[in-house]
Amino acid sequence: MSENKDPHVAQNDASDASDASRAAVKFVYDFTEGNRNLKDLLGGKGANLAEMTNLGLPVPPGFTITTEACKTYLASGEEPVELRDEVSAHLDALEKKMGKKLGQPNDPLLVSVRSGAKFSMPGMMDTVLNIGLSDKSVSGLAKQSGDDRFAWDSYRRLIQMFGKTVLDVDGELFEDALEAAKAAKKVTVDTDLEAADLKKLVTKFKKIVKTEAGRDFPQDPREQMDLAIRSVFESWNTDRAKLYRRQERIPGDLGTAVNICSMVFGNLGPDSGTGVAFTRDPASGHQGVYGDYLQNAQGEDVVAGIRNTVPLADLEQIDKKSYDQLMQIMETLETHYKDLCDIEFTIERGQLWMLQTRVGKRTAGAAFRIATQLVDQGLIDEAEALQRVNGAQLAQLMFPRFDETAKVEQLGRGIAASPGAAVGKAVFDSYTAIKWSRSGEKVILIRRETNPDDLDGMIAAEGILTSRGGKTSHAAVVARGMGKTCVCGAEEIEVDTKRRCLTAPGGVVIEEGDVVSIDGSTGKVYAGEVPVVPSPVVEYFEGRMHAGADDADELVGAVHRIMAYADRVRRLRVRANADNAEDALRARRFGAQGIGLCRTEHMFLGERREMVERLILADADEEREKALEQLLPLQKSDFVELFEAMDGLPVTVRLLDPPLHEFLPDITELSVRVALAESRKDSNENDLRLLQAVHRLHEQNPMLGLRGVRLGLVIPGLFTMQVRAIAEAAAERKSAKGDPRAEIMIPLVGTVQELEIVREEAEQVIAEVEETTGVELKLSLGTMIELPRAALTADQIAEAAEFFSFGTNDLTQTVWGFSRDDVEASFFTAYLEKGIFGVSPFETIDKDGVGKLVRDAVAAGRATRPDLKLGVCGEHGGDPESVHFFHEVGLDYVSCSPFRIPVARLEAGRAASESAGSDHR
């Protein structure tokens, strides 16, 4: 029996429940409260700091403000009302734990305020170190540490970082003042500046803040922290962060967490330092001691690459105790995370502190090597190894490399930070890199060191070269993440960005616009263009290389093992888009399981084009039949070669589907020719007749005109000639003991009636060939689904089709109303920059629009014909993300260009493995 309640009471109850819900929201977590599974809430950095704390590793105490707080701030412009009190409570607890107060004059607690999104976005968002220093507390820090220089160095760093990131002061102003201070002292590195020099620099920095920001540098430590927290929130939506997210396909609505961590100092002298370490080489995947270390420095110095580091292995000689402890921790973390770990650490007067760990970014080759190594070590199984690599990485491994036998002029050598062979014109700033690349130029971006503001230039460039920094510098980390060739720390090369040139040893000068080549696998830099040779991975797929002992063979061996597993578990078959025997044979070597699209219009180019032109323009049946008689044996010969190359595998032949203008004379050119002839009074009757016919058939939008099935229905005998050529070729191959498996595909069908007419004619021709040759043929007939109406009426079309192949290129054009030939060059760049597209819908399938039509057509088609064979033959068939979608909706195969077949095979395996893992969970 229901209870009648006063509506006001019900309203109060709802209000109380809402208040209780708000009260239950927790916006701040101590490092002791989280774990690595809370990345959505605590971000990657916060979750991993908590995980290391749980493992008992030496992590400075601190707390994390959640991504939910950030999302609330970004939505409303204000922090959640509860946030300040929660931060205060956690700050109080931190102060008690540390035995000191934030920014107190005598013995100050200092903290860092660092961003930390769910997905690593190196250098894209804000970080501020040394929060809590002021004119009063700097003396307390000097007393506490016994080092005046350290205290004033820390204070100038705070003002510089806070001014740039929080108060939006031009960072170059601080850099110029620092350079001026070094010049006045006649030193080249900032560690040679003494306390008195740094004190003067602090005064200068504060004046810069006052002038540029219109306010004094804040002296209240809590105000510093609150403003820094807000700045980190806002940095989620900076242009560089949004650009990086678009590049890496990171969702824009995740927000960032903020980590408040008690400071530990690597700039306390020679027994202190900071570094970044990898549990394996992120460039090659090899096991060993990899990373960078910098004495008497803070962490940002390493990442920024402003001073060249020493190899991590040197730490063993500098501080054996810390080195041994670090090696033990690295082993613990790799075993715990079961993957390559990227670690940031600081040593404060001999005490090791862990500041961050994450699963490290790696090159494509390293990804494959590491995955198989971890299987061999028993840390992961083959299914997990398959998920540790992806098709984009495999595609990178298939790119060419430099020819080691070529005559070259080496300019210098740096650190091999991200592999590849990149050639382009030297440019020395991001603006020029973008401008030139948009004009079609290939460029190499050359900088002393990169910073987050260079991101758009890095994206535009073929490769990046820096004279400073190591494998853990900003340039190296970002380039590896993007799969971009990068050489860092080429110290012997002097980069002058103002004069826009570099000077190599021996006085060789490279000016802006000169061509250079960089090898991200060896670190070598060359003048001019170095020729390239095929990748060993491509040679492996083509059967010209086998796994062995050297480095290239080791990589091939890793690729082979993972591909073999992907082939074992995948459900989707992979076919090729190929129009001739040569492409078909190459596709077969690459692992194609048939041809999913043979475009017959490509067979009519060159000298055959004139025959098709005569066929289309023919006025009389006799003229048309003569053209068809000439084309038939040529078509049959094409198909015999194709069926022989793909013997035993299906070959889907699409009947002629050209936009009509491709086979007609150019109307402008023909008009000029006729006009000139008339002016000379020697006009050609054939040209006049031809011009009239072209005018009659001219279309404003040929892609939506007389093509595909429409052309076959309007020009009698065209499709039946092609069907006869296919049937006779199949009969000839069968008579020669071959196993042809031809499938005839009718293009651009919009209604079942079109398909029924063509099917009836095709079946009659096949029956005639069977009777004439005495060979029984099993040819299936199907259609392309490339128009929205075809997808919407798939249940009807399936009554007359034995298979569907989704032509997602045309389907995307017709769903969006885009002409691919025009829009990609005209406004797609603006759409991508504005975030309307995360990626071009011609590159990755639009799941919400085009994908919905595909999904619905699959269901409707199979409801009519349960054994309906389903595939896709648009370029999406080789796109990694799209392959997962096609697996999910239940297609039988994908078809793509031969070069993309290995990528599709790998992703089909990953999709099946991922799906199986999800089912088990």
UniProtKB/TrEMBL annotation:
GO terms for molecular function: pyruvate, phosphate dikinase activity. Residues 441-523 form the PEP-utilising enzyme mobile domain. It comes from Streptomyces longisporoflavus. InterPro entries: ATP_grasp_subdomain_1 (IPR013815), PEP-util_enz_mobile_dom (IPR008279), PEP_util_AS (IPR018274), PEP_util_C (IPR000121), Phosphohistidine_dom_sf (IPR036637), PPDK_AMP/ATP-bd (IPR002192), Pyruvate_phosphate_dikinase (IPR010121), Pyrv/PenolPyrv_kinase-like_dom (IPR015813). Residues 80-308, 316-365 form the Pyruvate phosphate dikinase AMP/ATP-binding domain. Pfam families: PEP-utilizers, PEP-utilizers_C, PPDK_N. This is Pyruvate, phosphate dikinase. PROSITE patterns: PEP_ENZYMES_PHOS_SITE. Its EC number is 2.7.9.1. PANTHER family: PHOSPHOENOLPYRUVATE DIKINASE-RELATED, PYRUVATE, PHOSPHATE DIKINASE 1, CHLOROPLASTIC. Residues 557-909 form the PEP-utilising enzyme C-terminal domain. SUPFAM superfamilies: Glutathione synthetase ATP-binding domain-like (SSF56059), Phosphoenolpyruvate/pyruvate domain (SSF51621), Phosphohistidine domain (SSF52009). It catalyses: pyruvate + phosphate + ATP = phosphoenolpyruvate + AMP + diphosphate + H(+). Its cofactor is Mg(2+). Belongs to the PEP-utilizing enzyme family. Keywords: ATP-binding, Kinase, Magnesium, Metal-binding, Nucleotide-binding, Pyruvate, Transferase.
